[in-house]
Amino acid sequence: MRVQHPLARTLVTARTWPFLIDVGVATCAMAVFFAVISTGTYWLGKPIPVVPISHSIAALPAYAFYSIVRIAIAYLLSLVFAISYGYIAAYNPRVEAYMIAVLDILQSIPVLSFLPPVVLAMVALVPGHQMGIEMGVILLIFTGQVWNLAFSFYSSLKSIPKEMVEASRIYRYSAWQRFWQLEMPYATIGLVWNSIVSVAGGWFALIACEMFTMGDRNFQLPGLGSYLQTATVSGDIRAMVAGFAVVILIVVATDQVVWRPLIAWSDKFKFEQVESSERVVSPILEVLRRSNLSTLPGRLWSRFEEPLYQRMASTRDCRVVHPLDEETTRKKPSIGLWTLGGIAGVVVLWGASKAVLMLQTVTLAELGTLLEGAGATFLRVNASLLISAAWTVPVGVSIGFNPKLARIVQPVAQVMASVPATAFFPILLIGLVQIGGGLGVGSIALMLLGTQWYILFNVIAGAMSIPSDLREVSSLFHFTRWQRWTKLILPGIFPYLITGMVTASGGAWNASVFAEYSHVQDRTLQTIGLGAQIDAATDSGRFPILLLATIMISLMVVTMNRLVWRRLYRLAETRYKLEG
Amino acid sequence: MLRMLSGLSTPSAGEVYWHEKPIAGAEINVSIVFQSFALFPWLTVLENVEAPLQARGISPEERRTRSMRMLDTVGLDGFEAAYPKELSGGMKQRVGFARALVVEPEVLFLDEPFSALDVLTAENLRSELLELWANKTMPTKAVFLVTHNIEEAVLLADRIIVLGRNPGHIRTDFRVQIAQPRDRKSEPFTQLVDYIYKVLTRPDVTPAEAPDQQTGPKVRDQRQMHYQMLPHARPGGMAGLLELLLDKGGRDDIYRLADDLAFEIDDLLPIVDAAQLLGFLKIEEGDAAITETGTEFANSEILRQKELFREAAQTHVLLLRQIRRALEAKSDHTVPEDFFLDMLDEQFSEEECLRQMETAVAWGRYAEIFEFDAGRRRFVLPDAQDEELGASEEAE
Fold first, then answer.
1. Superfamily assignment of A361-580 in CATH?
2. Please, which residues 308-347 of chain A have a Cβ atom closer than 8 Å to chain B?
């Protein structure tokens, strides 16, 4: 069900849910929002020491280290959470539909608009301590990373070939063995590629949220993001360039040291009957494989695992063959569960209604500006997508038709996609200020920075996947240039283009929150847009506007996903799939 | 059905029992061999076979020895470190069998295990399965095979149940009494295949009783005999093949033979066919097995070989027999080639006639059934030619 080259978020595409589930999820989300805000404002009494951020380049390594630690913690957390979430969703039919709906909606909400309330709540939990902000930021990156990982794992579990599952049942695998020998290996490739996207998104968010102002208070953490922002605010170009260089360095290093070896290694989990000729090579993996140390973890692991297997083999679970349709034949939930659900429902409803009441304070004029902003942001996001597509399609196709070039450009595009646009932005802003341009255009440029690489990567993959005999047919029959594009190239790359654009549009929406409003050299640059209003509301601590804007942005993203992207995706899966 | 019997799915009505206990709670010991192999691509062959034992909490050492032994049994020794994607379809299914058998199942379920393989490989695996079964190398008490291949069912099964659909029901259920090894060309076999075919193609008719399978072996009808197509092989090639086969214990897979000889299979097959035609070897499920005469032939020195070949050729090859008779019948013991070519004409193309004749001449000359005078294009009885030669000498 997935398109082959997977530098893209895994998206919920397969189902549509009853409207009621959506409403339920939205209600829950609003209740959570309210709960977070009210606890936050309630606890937020004590002052928090503000860590000063240094400009000196000597401080960079330490800052980079802090940021990397944050990303790593958030990533590990989201991996663990995603795997448990996907596992539960896949094996519990009763909650499956709800869990996937939650996933779909949460995936669509731009994380950055959650920044202030989340940080507030975390600060409230750990009052008077830097730890609160730290946790808030990590939680935020976590929410940005987790959903596509969770969905990737879930859909992998769901697409394990039936006979493999049957084999694991008939040979009476324990859940443990099934997990390590069937489910995890099968899901690995999807998880690796989604991790690349996720971590890129994590950097994007981290750099944006290590430092922000709310009302008259400054929240900042020592890190690359705050370094870059401080440098931007004070206009220290040397520091900015240095910071940016460090970001690029980290991204490239991550690609070489982590992702490439992982991709090469995960090749062995490819579910194929015949060995494919094309493989990713990673020198680092080769070195690791050759060293004697590489067998050490395996040996330690099996020492730990063996007693476990022996103990589990004697449990009932492993002595009986479990029917595949066991779950569906279970009995109805008990009364206790019903009452528990009922109470939870009432609490959620109460919270949601409070949140709605809070919205009442929004004046009509403010609503008008919000709507106007929504329109502007909507146009900007789509403009950036169109511009990206407009240049990447011809360029990507010509690169893809030239395999030698493609082999060089594709990894570069992959790395570029991982460079957080938010790190680029300060430089862009200074440039804008110099030439006196506004943010209206500037924000589109920022979104472009984030979006185009995903599309380029996927278009190249698409062009490479067009069979050469089809291309030969088109030259044999002397197709005109127009015919070549409409009959061969566009339909051929369509599924890939859509995959790239879906991922890109997610990124663009996320970027909008950050792009439309900025402080540069003691000035505030802003343009009309929802993102700007979210930021402005954060700055001034206007929660009702923040909430409403977030709702609107999520609504737009979800609607776009449902009405446009999902349909295009289905079309791509059914009509334009090149098979064989 | 197979899924229900193996406890993988719950029947909508009725119950499955395992040793008088409902299957859902019973500790059943069964295995399935899957159509798509269902091997774990990220595990090596050995790890794949070991995995079910691991699930049973067996210690690493014992796991290893048992798995290696099983891999030996299915003929995969040396492949234990390979990954399934490096193997051919037939070898993958061997791994599937090894994995299924390593747990020593009481019942072995086969879910169309041969249908994803090419014809020869499938045939080969079938015979190996029969062998394992016949030798009691596995502790399995019953094998349950699901197949769409009628011949496969008749070849392997002791009892056949034909299922109908909408709703699923049993169409017919009978025992197969033909003794193993079964000959696909014997009359009871073909009759049974026809019978099942009829049952399957006419779902609305209540099936008749299964045919009586007690009739004897197929009798050759002389009147219907035509010229068999002579495979274009040289006697020397046959001798070589038989000797090689004898070296290999008298039996080997044809494909492996071709591999060993670095022959294209198309080059080897005529030799095998020829040896089979002469009764020197038998083809059984993709294996060539040497016969008694074949063994004697391979072990003899050249004169005895010729003698054996002559006997075999005259018994089995109609054309050679006819040539010999014609030569003996004629007073001058010589017959023109054209005479036989005309007879062959009815059955073969012009080109093929010539090739048939060429082969017949090669065989006949080797076996000293006749001589062939290539200049005059005439067959000559060996002794007669000597006489002729003698006569001409005298004349000089």
1. MetI-like (1.10.3720.10)
2. 309-314, 318-326, 329
CA A372 to chain centre: 27
Would an 8 Å CB–CB cutoff place A167 in contact with chain B?
yes
Q: What is the ipTM of this complex?
A: 0.70
H or E element that contains A20: helix A19-43
Q: DSSP readout, A93-109?
A: HHHHHHHHHHHHHHHHS
Cis peptide preceding B181, ω within 30 of 0:
yes
Alpha carbons within 13 A on the beta-carbon side of A81? 15
Distance spanning both ends of chain B, measured CA to CA: 88
Per-domain boundaries in chain A? 57-91+129-294, 361-580
Number of CB atoms found within 10 A of residue A469's CB: 9
Contact A477, A448 (CB under 8 A): no
Cβ-contact A119, A206 below 8 angstroms: no
Return the structure tokens found at A371: 């709507």
The shortest CB-CB distance from A173 to any of B6, B55, B58 is to B55
**Residue boundaries of the structural domains of chain B:** 2-148, 235-277+288-299, 317-395
**A390 close to A542: Cβ distance less than 8 angstroms:** no
The set of residues, in sequence order, having a beta carbon less than 8 Å from that of A168 and lying 6+ positions away, is A177, A178, A181, A182
Looking at domain A57-91+129-294, its CATH superfamily turns out to be MetI-like (1.10.3720.10)
Q: Which residue type sits at B306?
A: K
B35 touches chain A (CB under 8 A): yes
> Kind and range of the H or E element at B258?
helix B254-261
Judged by a CB distance cut-off of 8 A, whether residue B42 touches chain A is yes
- The phi and psi torsions of B369 (rounded to 5 degrees) equal -80, -35
Whether residue B150 has pLDDT greater than 60: yes
What pLDDT is recorded for position A262?
A: 86
Distance from CA of B50 to the nearest CA of A (A): 11
Residue of B nearest to A266 (CA): B42
pLDDT in tens, A212-223: 766 666 777 788
Contact call for A318 and B25, based on CB within 8 A: no
CA distances from A247 to A16, A229, A444, B118 (A): 40, 13, 22, 56
Torsion angle in degrees (nearest 10) through CA of A432, A437, A443, A446: -30
Nearest CA to A96 out of A86, A84, A107, A106 is that of A86
DSSP string for residues in A60-81: HHHHHHHHHHHHHHHHHHHHHH
Sign, CA dihedral B32-B37-B38-B42, equals positive
| Cα–Cα distance, B94 to B102 (Å, whole number) | 12
Contact A170, B31 (CB under 8 A): yes
Nearest beta carbon to residue A174 from set B42, B55, B99: B55
CA pair distance A191, A152, nearest whole angstrom: 6
B30 in contact with chain A, both atoms CB, cutoff 8 A: yes
Instruction: Copy the structure tokens of residue A86.
Output: 């996907």
Q: Which of A5-14, A479-488, B153-162, B324-333 has the lowest mean pLDDT?
A: A5-14
Q: How far apart are CA B70 and CA B51, in angstroms?
A: 13
CATH 3.40.50.300 holds for B2-148: yes
Task: Kindly report the nearest CA distance between residue B3 and chain A, in angstroms.
Answer: 9
DSSP one-letter code for B210 = P
Tell me which long-range contacts B189-193 makes (C-beta under 8 A, separation of at least 24). Answer: B189/B154, B189/B155, B192/B154, B193/B150, B193/B151, B193/B154
- Which pLDDT belongs to residue B389? 43
Distance from CA of B99 to the nearest CA of A (A): 9
pLDDT tens-digit series, residues A507-561: 888 788 777 777 666 667 777 888 888 877 777 777 788 788 888 888 888 888 8
Cα A31 to Cα A9: distance, rounded to the nearest angstrom: 27
